[in-house]
Amino acid sequence: MFIAPPFVFKVKKPVNLGFLDFSSLEKRRHFCQREVELNRRLCPEAYLEVVPIYRTGPDFSFKADGEIAEYCVKMRELPYSWPARRSLGEGGFLRELLAKGLVGEKEINRVISRLHRFYQSETPNPEIEQWGTPEKLKISTDENFAQVQPFVGKIISAAAFEAIRHFTNHFYVANEKLFRDRIQEHRIRDCHGDLHLDHIHLTPKATTIFDCIEFNDRFRFIDIANDLAFLAMDFDFEGKHELGNLLLRKTAREFGDPGMLKVANFYKCYRAFVRGKVESIQATEKETVDPQAHEKQATRYFCLALRYAVSGSEPLVLVVMGRVGTGKTTVAKQLASELDWPVFSSDEIRKTLAGVPLTERTAPELRDKMYSERMTKQTYKKLLEHGLAALEAHNGVVLDATFSSWANRKLLRDACIEASVHLQVVEVDVDSSQIKHRLKARDEKTTGEISDARLEDVEKLSASYEPPSELGLDLIHVSANDAISDTVRAVLTGLAEKQVR
Q: In the predicted model, what is the mean pLDDT of residues 260-285?
């Protein structure tokens, strides 16, 4: 793209990515024309024409002299495109306005109103609506998983990849009627297909939505919920969860479409995964200046996709509990890393409250006081305070503690109910022989251990452990006998399975 105010000229790269084929000059001309035709549906004033670029020797020109070397889309420049103009109050792209704190309910309503008129103007037909079936949708999601496979273990972990794929494929099966119902309700239209913050421009007088998908019809022949989920996901990506949720709730109400909210997390997961794929591919392109920046963005998008797959869009307190020596702290830290959530440990909080260095084992004469009922109650209270406070910034948190008593688990559940946040508990367990082996190894280490529990404490602590049978559907039980990666994969897959139901 190059800018010559008051115009912008867009040139397509001669690439073939499978889902996109601009490999020949004729194909680039065709898709330039399609770009103009399709985008005029939402912003006819911005898309002007397709212009040939001529080559005469080493020079290029718009003048009809020489052979046609390329085609480009000629657009009218949108106000606020240059940093120097940002003080003129002419408006801006939604991401820029969001960064300045200038996006609220009023701006959301403007976008919804413009999109509502657009969707209503698009007449559904059988050719379009077939792409709302699970069979057709699976073409795109299977393609995504195949194209991301080379990046597994590099940009996305195998555990996260499998959890997202499990959520996606099982959602189709468990919700087939929902997909069919949405076709019957004519929710599948010829949509925008690439509806994110950078493709929406606001001025005091105009709402401009541009740059729709032109290169592959199936990416536009989608559920309206799919289209809007991209924008909601983009708000979440920027840490503006309240705006993403507001967009979907208001749209569902304005469109008379309560079913939209039932498929929103599925489509947000899909959209975040696609963005992770695109960033991963861009990181491998020869002309990319900063591949690490693209890899970092890809990791963030994949992480967001994982969060949708295992916890949806609402705040979640994820507790990792179990007997001593089961490896719950290691599991908790790895889950927190996968989800990019903070993790809080009862062992760390207890020692901090007592003024004991974290990696120093508590002296025998202090242990009765350290592990008294009063100190334990204070520790768990502080653990919950830290965890619930962190939800405001992170939308999810991992708590690492034994939660060995019914009373402490009741405190946990009551606090989550009062805060109106979802709770999910993972109980980690291993064979008794493994526990003894791990605690013996812990005894032999001189530094680095935060937990005070040792081999001599096993019988006493095991006898006082009350199994969390009262948690019912809020509990996932996993074995940690094998590698940590297997345990984490089992937890993530189990969480994804619950999201499908």
A: 97
CA distance 385 to 250: 32
- Whether 81 maps to a domain, the answer reads no
**241 and 344 together in one domain:** no
My answer on whether omega of the bond before 6 falls inside 30° of 0, hence cis, is yes
pLDDT of residue 399: 98
pTM: 0.92
Of residues 84 and 55, more confidence is placed in 55
Q: Are residues 465 and 321 in the same domain?
A: yes
pLDDT at 463 over 80: no
131: nearest Cα among 139, 123, 121? 139
Same domain, 199 and 258: yes
Mean pLDDT of the chain: 91
326 plus 448 within the same structural domain: yes
Give the 3-state DSSP-derived string for 150-213, with helices as H, strands as E and coil as C: HHECCCECHHHHHHHHHHHHHHHHHCHHHHHHHHHCCCEEECCCCCCHHHEEECCCCEEECCCC
